[in-house]
Amino acid sequence: MKLRIKGNSLRLRVTRPELAALVEGGRVEESIRFGPGPADRLAYVLQVGTASDGDDRDDGYASPLVAFAANEVRVTLSPAAVRRWREPDRVAVEGRLPVGGGEVLHVLVEKDFACVDGPPGGEDPDAFPNPSAGRAC
């Protein structure tokens, strides 16, 4: 799972095995260490659970929820969102969450597609097949 943070946006990119693990076990976790101590670690977690912020969308499931505590960023998706996201035509689950002071956090959880213009074999064999592969630009 890859984490990208820029401004008030949070993006998680998930491989095929990670999505399968999420469906089977309800949780995928990664971390990065910045030093030797336990507080020198940032964990990021994607989990299935009750994800309802009152913003039920017209496609029938709630937006993701995000929490940050004890050096852990936790993104929670509803079971319905995960079921829908598993379908081949669905690329991402997205939401915009108010964080106070008139600011909004944009959250995007997406399938990690193979690079189209990279070396043969791609950067990650566990990535989802890119729907644009084989097309001329």
The total beta strand count reads 8
| Radius of gyration of CA atoms, rounded to a whole number | 16 Å
Approximately how much beta-strand content do the residues carry? 35-45%
SS class: mainly beta
**CATH class, anyone?**
Alpha Beta
Kindly report the spatial arrangement of strands forming the biggest sheet. Answer: 1-2-8-7
- Cα(first) to Cα(last) distance is 28 Å
How many helices does DSSP assign?
2
Q: Mind summarizing the main beta sheet? A: 4 strands, mixed
Q: Which runs of at least 5 residues are low in confidence (pLDDT < 50)?
A: 53-58
Mean pLDDT: 84
Q: How many individual domains?
A: 1
Helical fraction equals 10-25%
| Overall form | globular
Topology-level CATH name = Gyrase A, domain 2
Assembly status: single chain
CATH architecture annotation name: 2-Layer Sandwich
Explained architecture:
The protein is mainly beta. It has a four-stranded mixed sheet. Strands 3-4-6-5 form a four-stranded mixed sheet. It is globular and about 40 Å long. The protein has helices spanning 16-25, 79-85; strands at residues 2-6, 9-14, 27-33, 41-48, 65-69, 72-77, 92-100, 103-111. The protein has a single domain (2-111), classed as Gyrase A, domain 2. Mean pLDDT is 84; it is low at 53-58. It has two helices and eight strands.
Can you summarize this structure?
It is built from two helices and eight strands.
Protein topology:
Elements: E1 2-6, E2 9-14, H1 16-25, E3 27-33, E4 41-48, E5 65-69, E6 72-77, H2 79-85, E7 92-100, E8 103-111
Parallel strand pairs: 2-8, 4-6
Antiparallel strand pairs: 1-2, 3-4, 5-6, 7-8
